[in-house]
Amino acid sequence: MVSRIGKEIELSPVEMASRYSSRALYNLAAGSPDPSTIPVGEIMNSYDRVLSDLGPRALGYPGAGGQESLVKEIENFLPFLGLSIRKGERLVVTSGAQHAIELIAKYLLENEVVVAENPTFVETLTPMKLRSSVVLPVSLDERGMSVDELESLTRTVKVSIVYIIPNCHNPAGVTTCLERRKRLAELAEERNFYILEDDPYRPISTGVPPPVKSFDNNGRVIYVSTFSKILAPGLRIGFILANQEVAEKLALLEQNDFSTSTINQYVVADLLKRGVIQGRTEQLSSHYGRKMKILVESLRENRLDDFNPPSCGFFLLLNLHKDADSVFHTALTKGLLFVPAGPFFLRGGETYARLSVAVAQEEHIVKGVRVLKEVLSQD
Q1: Residues of the chain with pLDDT > 90: what percent?
Q2: Could you identify which of 46, 114, 336, 367 might form a hypothetical disulfide with 371, taking C-beta atoms 3.0 to 4.6 angstroms apart as the criterion?
Q3: How do residues 255-301 score in pLDDT, each as one tens digit?
Q4: Cα dihedral across residues 85, 88, 93, 96: positive or negative
Q5: In 3D, which of 68, 110, 107 has the Cα closest to residue 91?
Q6: Contact call for residues 82 and 130 (beta carbons, < 8 A)
Q7: Both ends of the chain: CA-CA distance in Å?
Q8: Secondary structure (DSSP) of 217-228
Q9: What are the start-end ranges of the H helices in the chain?
Q10: What are the entry keywords (predicted)?
């Protein structure tokens, strides 16, 4: 498929894998939160309260940049993320984090040079590829993006924006260390580029370093987060924290599509006001941490150990040392579903698989790894 500007759009490997989910006995592909963790009762109660209190007002068109009540509650929530709104900054409410990144791509990336971790999340990489002139890869290791490599690149290339997933990386599972976060913020000021900090997993993780945004003294970091992982992805509520100039432009762009549901904004505001969201971090961090420990131990027991140990979140990136697409199709016949990770890479990656603990039951993680070992052991 070709876009209006003549650049190729391919089906996301995440979407491709999801189409096979009905055939999977062991789903190690899904990136959605575990359905058992979604607070359905609390969300139902919030809908009842919002409709009772606001009536038709809760069902009208949303205002540009977000409903006032939700913006206020997110401002109160920011210290929970290690942030605050500084002078000259503003929040913009969006329809999830991917909508936020699409808006940023429209405003900042037209024919510009973008740098991303190699690998990075394929579904946010797509709008960057479509809008920018080029997306350049910088290596990723167990401590995050290689800042030395980035610094060397920016000596010779005028970069517009650097995209990073600093916590519980998708697909690699790693977390950027404190020293590299500080240096990234310094480099953005020195070399005059923006950092797009995509941080959806912080609300379900504990012990991660402060956001890169917290070291930003000159408005060079654009921070994006979402309530999808800590609450429910179907509500489609995320936000951007950026300097006033960028934020106002993004709010106007958001106004053009009216995609952020009015009632869902009021519902999330109600859940924040009552502390429902804030109280879930330790529970969810423990829940996913326990499942990730099972995945790591199962892989090592089966001598599948070519991966950087994940620090938090849903994902682990495993080198299969075989073509991942071929392994995928064989594994599927035995009931195992994972995501071939080649499209997450700007260079290389054909032998990598993204494994997820998000929706899989604990016993299914163990059984799925055994199937993977069986498939890889075949000639």
Answers
A1: 84
A2: 336
A3: 776 678 999 999 999 999 999 999 999 999 999 999 999 999 999 99
A4: negative
A5: 68
A6: no
A7: 35
A8: SSS-EEEEEEST
A9: 13-18, 40-54, 68-77, 96-108, 122-131, 147-156, 178-191, 244-257, 262-273, 281-301, 324-333, 362-377
A10: Aminotransferase, Pyridoxal phosphate, Transferase
**Is 40-277 assigned to CATH 3.30.2000.10?**
no
Q: What is the pLDDT of residues 345-369, one digit of tens each?
A: 999 999 999 999 999 999 999 999 9
Q: What is the CATH number of domain 13-38+280-377?
A: 3.90.1150.10
Q: What's the 3-state SS for 57-96?
A: HHHCCCCCCCCHHHHHHHHHHHHHHCCCCCCCEEEEEECH
The rounded distance, in Å, linking the Cα atoms of 367 and 152 is 44
Query: Coil, helix or strand for 330?
Result: helix
Domain boundaries, the chain: 13-38+280-377, 40-277
The Cα 281–Cα 224 span in angstroms is 18
CA 174, 179, 182, 185 dihedral sign is negative
Which distant-in-sequence residues (6+ apart) come within 8 Å of 314 by Cβ?
Answer: 31, 168, 170, 173, 201, 288, 292, 356, 357, 358
Q: Which residue has the tokens 């300097």?
A: 243
Token pair recorded at residue 29:
């592909």
What amino acid occupies position 297? E
Measured CA angle at 90 (ends 88, 94), to 5 deg: 160
**Cα 225 to Cα 239: distance, rounded to the nearest angstrom:** 6
Is residue 11 very low, low, confident or very high in pLDDT (cuts 50, 70, 90)? low
pLDDT at residue number 146? 98
Query: What's the DSSP call for residue 2?
Result: B
Q: What pLDDT band is residue 1 in, cutting at 50, 70 and 90? A: very low
Locus of tokens 């912080």? 202
Identify which of 106, 128, 131, 99 has the alpha carbon closest to the alpha carbon of residue 116: 128
Question: Whole-prediction pTM value?
Answer: 0.94
Place of tokens 């069902």: 59
Identify the three-state secondary structure at position 195.
strand
CA distance 119 to 341: 9
Average pLDDT estimate for 221-241: 97
